[in-house]
Structure formats: C-alpha cells, structure tokens
C-alpha cells in the first residue's frame, strides 16, 4: 500500500498544524482533517483560523481546497483514508477513578469505535494524541473486537513534540519523529508507510522507530524531563531571591556545562500549557498504579514546585504593595501561557490573577492574542472561583496597554510577549499611581532602565530590594522599606 489518503480526527492545536504541514509537503496525498465541533471546522475554513500560530495561515492558505480539507463528515473521511491520525484531546480526568490525575481517554475510545464501525478496508491507525503507555493495546482490542471480514488494522504510536508558538517551525524541522509499531512483519510495513510520509521533508536519521510502548512512554518522559528543568530552575530562583544571587547568571553558568545544556532553563512564574501538568500527573498516576510510589512522588514534586512558584510570585506582589492590594488597580500584561499563542490552558497567569482577585485587586488585563471572552471565561470558571459575579466586577480587559496602566499601582508581566519589551514605560509611569511598581514574572524587561524611570521593580530570581533576606526569612515586610 502507498498512502494516498490521510484522515486526521481532531482539528485542534495538533491536528490542524500537523496535517496542514503534511498537506503542504506531500502534494501527492489528500488530507482530510475532521472534528465533531462544527464551529472549529467552520473556523478552519474561514479567514480567521481557530488557533493562532506564526506562519500557520500561509500554509493553510496554500493547501486548503487543493489537498487539504476541513470537514465534519467524519465517517466519509475515515472510510476513504488509508491512514488515520487520532489527534483528539486527552485531558486530565475530572471524574471517577483517577480523577485529577489519570488521562481521560473517552475521546480516543470514541474514535476507535467509529473507525471500527465505518471502515471497509485495511487501515493504519496512528496515535498522535499523548496517551498513557499501553493505550495502543486498548485501541487494538476495540478494533479487533469489532472487525468485519476484509478489514484489518495496524496501530502505530507517533507522538507529537511540537510546542505552541513555534508549531510550524517544529513540524518542518523536528529534532526527531518517533514512530512506534508492533514488532511483526505487518507492524514493520505500517511503520514504513508512515515513515514514507515523513520522508517527504524529514531527513531519515531524524526518524526513529521503537516498540509501541517505548514510543508512548517516550512522549510522557520527554514532557516530564522538560517540565522538570523548569521546576529545577524555578526552585533555584527562590534560593536566588533569598540570598542575593541572580538566577539568570546562575542558569547561564549551569547551562554552559555541555552535559546540562542551556535550553529550558529560564526561570519563570511557572510553566503552563495543556501538556506539562496533564502529562506529569498521568505519569504519576501510572507509577502509582504500578505500585511504584517513589517514582510517583519524584515526578509529583515537579508539579508541586510549579504551584509553589506561581503562588510565591502572587504573594510577593501583595507583600511588596504594602501587604494589601484590595481596591488597587494592577495592570496585567499577558494572559496566554507563553508568547506567540492565544492559548490559555493551564496558563500561570490565570492562577496569579485568581490569587490577586482573592485579595480584592482590580485587574486591567492586556494580552495581544487572547480574546476578551476567553479571559472572562477563565477567571470566572468554577475551578478558580465560587464568586464569578464578584470577579467580573474586578476585571477589565483592554485593547490598549497604555489605557490599562492608567491609575494602576503596578504592572504585572505574566507572559513573555516581545512587544512588552518595546513599550514606552516613561509614558506609562507618568499615568500610574506612585510609587509605581513592576513585577516581571518572565524576566523580560530592562530593570535598570525601569528603576531610572522611577519604578520599583521585582523579578523572578532576583531581588532589587535591600530587605530581601528579612522578607524571605518569613518576617513581616516593613512598609515603606524598599530601596531600589
Ligand atoms: N497542544 C499541543 O501543543 C500538543 C503538542 C503535542 C501533543 N499534544 C497532544 O495532542 C492531543 C491533542 O491536543 P490538542 O491541543 O490538539 O487538543 P485540542 O483540544 O486543541 O483539539 C482536540 C480536538 O479533537 C476534537 N475531538 C474530540 N473527540 C472527537 C471525536 N470523537 N471525533 C472528532 N473530533 C473529536 C475536539 O472537538 C477538538 O477540536 C492531546 O493528547 C495532547 O496532549 C498536544
Ligand atoms: O525555560 C523555560 C521554558 C518554558 N517555560 C514555560 O513552560 C511552559 C511550556 O512551554 P513549551 O514547552 O515551550 O510549550 P508547550 O506548547 O507546552 O510544549 C510542550 O508540550 C507539548 C505538548 O506535549 C510538547 O509537544 C512540547 O515538546 C513541549 O515543549 C510555558 O508556560 C513556558 O513559558 C519556562 O517557564 N521556562
């Protein structure tokens, strides 16, 4: 078989960009991206795509209608396909056994059942979603229990490693493409088919093949290692703030060791995004179920440190603002979980804002890409507050950052958008309440310049105040005792 027709179930942050790149690089393949959400498909077929990713629009514009199609006709697309990617969401379970930790695989199971029901010929089914190790076994079980005569399936694991904000670049130049398959002749043939697709643009040495279980576990392990690096440097940032060391200098010195490397060592207000926490919790759950409590505890600490980091930052803001933010306006710059995306899933900004709202602060929020309705929805959702009406009255969303800072006591930077570095902070300082503070949760601003303008500044992993040792020792912060 040579794959001529590909279907991708799930037109989200992974399915959309991944299949757009496949269609772009493989003009000899017809690609149908399907979703149960009519709204999502409508947006993919419009000028305003449902997700923001640099360069995505150009790729979609070039292929849509040529060999790339977005449709709700799931059954027809599955029927016509030789190879089917499953790219549906696998969020943390919010109910039942494993609630709050295990991955919810109901969407994966639904896909497997639909594929079994409508397929008429041989298909390769590819797990692209991130799943617990041995999930392919359950998919195989469902498919084989429902197989009709003349139909056969091969299941592959092909986890996706793209990061949001750089998805197109990551897809075009992946560090590696990982394909896991059954160790049999039919398994090897299916792996070869998928490899052939990637061979259109990925050098052969970057395409790695493993067993299915190794592939599934490698995805969870990769995210766990990445998240662990962020939590490790964030733990060091707390030590820096307590001792007078500077986490940027420490990270640079540590990262120069070629065995450690310099990437993913930027201390921050905490990691966010739909993947790290979910996949870590999933790993913890798997370890617990396998009776490996020490392993579970080890990885649990990575997410605990992340919660500690964002809470610590929020507390520091309150502390520096003379221990009260009640009725004070604070300008919040950034709500997305990282720059170059409009995605707010698990964004640390939500948690920091929620903490400040609990303390009675009024928040003037500005983000260049997150929709107003999304910010309102996130901050009023039941997992964050049981007082949505009160929260609504305390938040205002701005299109203009210069309006957001008017009469504010502080600027709080929660996403590392490049544009924040270019703002006219002199102009901002003029219209703010004095003393005016900047709390830089992403370490992106020029603090020396801000101090010259009259701001009092605080950032992650570095104290600009003389009272750092006193405050970090847990003693009460004496009002009016800061010195830039
Ligand atoms: N977001 C990322 O950067 C990223 C990167 C690598 C891997 N992943 C993994 O990829 C998977 C998808 O993530 P995402 O961020 O694209 O999720 P998403 O929520 O953006 O998209 C999933 C889509 O699947 C659709 N869907 C769910 N069940 C369906 C069904 N039965 N039939 C048709 N459509 C269905 C939903 O409507 C939704 O549009 C997850 O397992 C995630 O962990 C995500
Ligand atoms: O040095 C760093 C690097 C990242 N972050 C934060 O960590 C989070 C995650 O960032 P990143 O990994 O760049 O984005 P994601 O889109 O979540 O991508 C991760 O999760 C995806 C989903 O599984 C994987 O495919 C990617 O390989 C993996 O990087 C964001 O809040 C970042 O701000 C830091 O605080 N410091």
From TrEMBL:
Role description: Involved in the biosynthesis of glycosaminoglycans; hyaluronan, chondroitin sulfate, and heparan sulfate.
Active site: 275
GO biological process assignments: glycosaminoglycan biosynthetic process; UDP-glucuronate biosynthetic process
This enzyme's EC code(s): 1.1.1.22
Record carries keyword Oxidoreductase: yes
Residues reported to bind NAD(+): 10-15, 35, 40, 88-92, 129-130, 164, 275-278, 345
Any one GO MF annotation of this record: UDP-glucose 6-dehydrogenase activity
Family (UniProt): Belongs to the UDP-glucose/GDP-mannose dehydrogenase family.
Descriptive protein name: UDP-glucose 6-dehydrogenase
UniProt keyword annotations, A-Z: NAD, Oxidoreductase
Pathway terms, separated by semicolons: Nucleotide-sugar biosynthesis; UDP-alpha-D-glucuronate biosynthesis; UDP-alpha-D-glucuronate from UDP-alpha-D-glucose: step 1/1
Domain UDP-glucose/GDP-mannose dehydrogenase C-terminal, chain residue ranges per copy: 331-447
Catalytic activity: UDP-alpha-D-glucose + 2 NAD(+) + H2O = UDP-alpha-D-glucuronate + 2 NADH + 3 H(+)
Superkingdom assignment: Eukaryota
GO cellular component, as recorded: nucleus
InterPro entries: 6-PGluconate_DH-like_C_sf, NAD(P)-bd_dom_sf, UDP-Glc/GDP-Man, UDP-Glc/GDP-Man_DH_C, UDP-Glc/GDP-Man_DH_C_sf, UDP-Glc/GDP-Man_DH_dimer, UDP-Glc/GDP-Man_DH_N, UDPglc_DH_euk
